[in-house]
């Protein structure tokens, strides 16, 4: 129970003081006798808060940057009308800064025995599960002099999914895939290809592709054309250790890696390849295996939604052992990790041969565009020092990439905006070369 501002104003101008006491008050409040009677009647006529019944419905998921509407249905079973203000509390990251008050507060009038639906529109600023907190209701009497107030726990969860901004590149990558996949047959030879058809030999063709039996049956030299093999296995490995927590622009490196992984998964599943996901630092953080082509992308998006970087050093030996268990036969292992010198030289390089012995390995890393900007800085002493530091960082990064490539690893090093399409291009190039 609480006084309103209107009650205090009337009490200030009252003339016949009497005492009113309510639980939780530390003293007596002096008001006039008519006002005391009005307050008592107002309190008695205010609908009780604790008897209200509240239920939720609405969206259970949304992509980061989009809105989610959660409906709150309030039923008034009492015999008195409910004049109420409600606050639907959610974590601060459920709204854009400065919009929480307007979005979470509602006014409603609910006649006796009826119900009303109120909609809270969330616009989350972070991935993951957002859980509803309590709903606080303030019930006013008809005169607005006294209120009843109470809270209800009404559970609800909205899962905020990765935004998948690189989806815009998918049509162009699929067009290139169709060129490789039978509409325009390509002449390749080696592991990971399927025979497509025969055609006449033209200068420049690989002589190893000549079909001598077919040539003997006709007057021209025939060569075999090949197309990329389907049903290959792709294992996406996300390094969730401390290096993935470094922010590049407005987001951690892990978020850019997720976006690239989603584009590659969408492309590979359309190509008929099987895609699995492993997220690891010192233990498995997420694992998606054995999904059908139509289920791969939703499963990956759902698994990545709650994934966060861990501020610990990644156990490269444990990651390698887990990846080998997850991909028992020849596969393309795409490792999304850092190209920082120390983690690669001390962690990845000593165990890399265990992966390259059986699998094709591709390492993708997020480059910081700010380093590129610093490398071109000139004009002041400070800018020259920045440029020197950036040049040294780039040199170490290139040296690390060269060490990986000398061991047969394909390396993709690109800024957050370019990583996803660059990784997709590397995958298509491996297919075109017959390495998948």
From TrEMBL:
<feature type="region of interest" description="Disordered">
    <location>
        <begin position="93"/>
        <end position="130"/>
    </location>
</feature>
<feature type="domain" description="DUF58">
    <location>
        <begin position="198"/>
        <end position="374"/>
    </location>
</feature>
<dbReference type="InterPro" id="IPR002881">
    <property type="entry name" value="DUF58"/>
</dbReference>
<dbReference type="Pfam" id="PF01882">
    <property type="entry name" value="DUF58"/>
</dbReference>
<protein>
    <submittedName>
        <fullName>Putative CONSERVED MEMBRANE PROTEIN</fullName>
    </submittedName>
</protein>
């Amino acid at each position: 129970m609480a006084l309103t501002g209107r009650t205090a104003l009337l009490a200030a101008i009252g003339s016949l003081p009497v005492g009113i006491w309510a639980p939780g008050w530390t003293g007596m409040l002096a008001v006039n006798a008519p006002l005391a009677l009005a307050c008592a009647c107002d309190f008695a006529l205010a609908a009780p808060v604790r008897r209200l019944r509240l239920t939720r419905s609405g969206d259970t998921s949304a992509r980061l940057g989009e809105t989610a509407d959660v409906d709150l249905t309030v039923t008034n079973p009492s015999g008195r009308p409910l004049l109420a203000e409600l606050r639907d509390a959610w974590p601060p990251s459920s709204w854009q800064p400065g919009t929480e008050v307007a979005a979470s507060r509602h006014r409603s009038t609910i006649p006796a025995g009826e119900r009303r639906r109120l909609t809270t529109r969330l616009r989350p600023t972070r991935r993951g599960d957002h859980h509803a907190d309590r709903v606080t209701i303030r019930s006013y009497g008809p005169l607005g002099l006294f209120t009843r107030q109470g809270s209800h726990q009404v559970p609800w969860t909205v899962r905020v999914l990765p935004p998948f901004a690189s989806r815009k590149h998918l049509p162009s990558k699929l067009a290139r895939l169709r060129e490789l996949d039978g509409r325009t047959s390509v002449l390749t030879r080696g592991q990971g290809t399927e025979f497509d058809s025969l055609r006449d030999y033209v200068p420049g063709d690989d002589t190893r592709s000549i079909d001598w039996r077919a040539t003997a049956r006709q007057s021209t030299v025939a060569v075999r054309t090949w197309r990329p093999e389907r049903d290959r296995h792709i294992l996406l490995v996300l390094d969730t250790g401390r290096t993935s927590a470094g922010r590049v622009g407005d987001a951690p490196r892990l978020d850019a890696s997720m976006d690239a992984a989603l584009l590659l998964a969408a492309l590979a599943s359309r190509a008929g390849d099987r895609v699995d996901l492993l997220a690891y630092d010192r233990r498995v953080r997420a694992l998606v295996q054995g999904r059908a082509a139509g289920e791969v992308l939703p499963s990956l998006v759902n698994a990545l939604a709650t994934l966060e970087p861990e501020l610990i050093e990644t156990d490269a030996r444990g990651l390698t052992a887990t990846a080998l268990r997850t991909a028992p036969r020849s596969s393309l292992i795409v490792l999304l990790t850092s190209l920082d010198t120390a983690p690669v030289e001390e962690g990845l390089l000593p165990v890399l041969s265990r992966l390259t012995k059986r699998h094709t390995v591709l390492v993708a890393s997020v480059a910081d565009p700010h380093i590129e900007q610093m490398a071109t800085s000139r004009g002041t002493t400070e800018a020259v020092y920045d440029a020197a530091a950036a040049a040294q960082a780039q040199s170490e990064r290139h040296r690390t990439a060269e060490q990986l490539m000398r061991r047969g690893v394909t390396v993709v090093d690109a800024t957050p905006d370019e990583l996803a399409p660059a990784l997709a291009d590397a995958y298509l190039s491996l297919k075109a070369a017959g390495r998948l």
